[in-house]
C-alpha cells in the first residue's frame, strides 16, 4: 500500500531518529553524529520502546562533548523517557555532574527565555516544563481545591495531617512532619531580626497553622500578624482553634491574589512567608513581583516553601535557580530570602537512640562508624540497603563487637598498665641498693666499678619488668587485630563473590586500641553506590542508585498506600524529597 506524504515524512524522521540514537549508543565519533544531525535527523525524536532521545543516549554514553553539541543544536532539555526520566536524570545516575550541569543550565536558559517572551507577548503559558498545571483536580487547580472538602486528621502513625480527596486518593495538603522545616524557616526569618521587638509578619496559607503557631511563639509576639487563607474548611479549623481571637492576628479570608491590594496598602512587612497549595510556579512568580512593595526595607526577610518540581532533581534544580533569578529580578537578593532546598535531613533516618554511630561522609564514598558495645547498633546505612538485609548487618556487627570485645578490657588495661609502669620504676629503684651492696660485699677486685655494674643490672631489670608487663598486652592486642581482620576479610570475600569486584563495598575494621572500647568500621563504597535523590519508592532503572533518605517513603508514598495519604502533585509529577546538597559530617 502506498504511504501518504505525511506518513512518508514520519517514516523518514523515524528512520533518521532511530539511526541517530543507534549511532550514539554504538559510540560513533562526534563528527559522524554531526553529519547525521546535519542530514536532518530530528533531535526531538524518542524511541517508542523506551522513550529515549538522542540527548538521553548521549548522557547514557557520558559523552560530554556530544551532550553540549546536541544542546547547542536545540535538543529538548526536559523530554522524559517512558520511565519519566530526563537525560539529566541519567547523567545524575552516573554521578556525572558535568553533563547534568550542561542540561540543567540549558533548562534554566530556556525557562528564562520563555518567561521573558511571555512578558513581552500574550503567550499565556510561559513554562515549557511538564510541571505546569495540566491537572484540573484539587491537587493542581486552586478552584477545584477550594471547592473540595478538607480533612484534619491524625494518621495511623499519630501524625497530624490535612488531606484533600482527589478521586479515590487522599492527598496531603500539609503534614505534621513539616514542623522541622517550618521551625528552621522561622528561625531564619526571625532570629536576630532588627525589628524583632515589633515584627510585622505576613503568612500566605494557614494549612495546619504550624508556621503561624511558631510565629506566635516567638520570644516577642509579632505586633501584627496577617494570615491569608481562602479555604472554608481551613478557616473553620482556625475558628475552632481560636485564631480569630488572637491579639494582633488579622485573617484575610481570600486567596492572596484577591487580597493583594489590601496587603499592599498595609505594606511594610518585616517577614513574609508563602506556602500555598495547588498553585504552579507562575503563581509563585506572580507573588514575587509584589515583594518589593510588601517588604518594609532591606532588613526584611522573605521565604517560601520550595516544592517546585520536587519529584525530580532536575526540575527542582532548574526551578530553584529560576526562582533565585526571578527574585533577583525584583531586587530581592539572597540577603533577604531563604531557599529551603531540602525536605528532610539524612539524620532523620537514624533513630534518636543511635548514639553509637558517627558517620562521616567523604567524597570517596566512605562510611565511618564508631561502634561501641554500650550503644545500640546503628541501622543498615541506606547506601548498603540493596546489598544487605538488616539481619546480615546485625550478625556482622555483633560478631565484630564480640570479637573486638574479647581483646578489649579498658579497665583491666588501665590497672595492668599502671601496675606495669609502677613495677618497672619501683622494682629496679628498690633493688639497686640491694644489688650494689651485695656486689660490694662480695667483690675483691678493686678494678671493678660496682656502681656502674649495678646500674646496668638495674636497667636490665627495668627492661625485663617492662617487657614482662607489656609484651603480653601487645601480643593480645595484635591477636585481636588479626582476628578482626580475618573476620572482615571473610566478609569482603563473600561480598565480592556476591556483587562482583567493582560493585561490592570494602570493609576495614580497626579493633579498639589500648584503653578504648570503640571499634572503627570503615566501609568504602564503590563509585556507583553513591545515592541519588530519587524517591524511595520510585521505580528505578538498574543504573540508578538508591535514595538518600529511605525513611521519607513514609511521608511521600510514591503510589498511595492503604491508610496513608499520597503527597501532592504539581501537574502530573508527584512531589518527593530532593536532597541535592552534599553530605555533611554529622554526629548523631
Ligand atoms: C501547605 S498549606 C500551608 C501550611 C502552613 N505553612 C503550615 O505551616 O501549616 C497550604 C495552604 O495554602 C492555602 N492556599 C491555597 N491556595 C492559596 C492562595 N491562592 N492564597 C492563599 N492561600 C492559599 C491552602 O488552603 C492551605 O491552607
UniProtKB/TrEMBL annotation:
What's the superkingdom here?
Eukaryota
Q: Which GO terms describe its biological process?
A: methylation
Every RMT2 domain range: 136-385
User: What Pfam families does the record point to?
Assistant: Ank_2
* GO terms, molecular function: protein arginine N5-methyltransferase activity
Q: What GO cellular-component annotations does this UniProt entry give?
A: cytoplasm; nucleus
> Where do the ANK repeats lie?
50-82
- List the InterPro entries hit by this protein, alphabetically: Ankyrin_rpt, Ankyrin_rpt-contain_sf, RMT2/GAMT_Mtase, RMT2_dom, SAM-dependent_MTases_sf
What residues form the membrane-spanning segments?
415-436, 456-476
Checking PROSITE patterns in the record gives: ANK_REP_REGION, ANK_REPEAT, SAM_RMT2
Keywords of the record, alphabetical order, are: ANK repeat, Membrane, Methyltransferase, S-adenosyl-L-methionine, Transferase, Transmembrane, Transmembrane helix
Name under which the protein is recorded: Arginine methyl transferase
Task: Tell me what organism the protein belongs to.
Answer: Lentinula edodes
